[in-house]
Amino acid sequence: MSHVRYWRKQKSLLVNTRPGRTAFRGPKQGKFPAVEEDLFKYVRELRSSGIAVSCEMLQFEARKIAQEKGVPAATFKASRGWVTRFMRRHQLSVRRRTTLCQRLPQDYEQQSDLSTSDSD
Fold first, then answer.
1. What is the pLDDT of residues 52-70, one digit of tens each?
2. How is the chain split among helix, strand and coil, in percent rounded to 5?
3. What are the boundaries of each domain within the chain?
4. CA-CA distances (angstroms) from residue 56 to 28, 40, 69, 74, 116?
5. Which of 37, 76, 105, 115 is placed for a possible disulfide with 66 were both Cys, Cβ 3.0 to 4.6 Å?
């Protein structure tokens, strides 16, 4: 079927869409939703404990969960690309761990008092 014919079939859908929409793809679901659900719970638990999560950790845990669920290793590889897509589907990102705050100098209050009195 040509694109023009396909577009004509979908004319009412295309006309009624919001401006700027570029695709009609819905939310994607992975081939192994049970594995993804358990892996997402695992990520939330680690993050709530303050533990950084890496892609390698996700691959290892996903393979372990798949094995527990009886998914054959030949079917489920948990490749780097799969991890990337899993993270995109679940709005996750690998973030660098940062310090919560920087320590202020011990004489901070004295310095701030001096700076405010100088401007008066």
1. 899 999 999 999 999 999 9
2. 50, 0, 50
3. 52-90
4. 23, 15, 20, 19, 51
5. 76
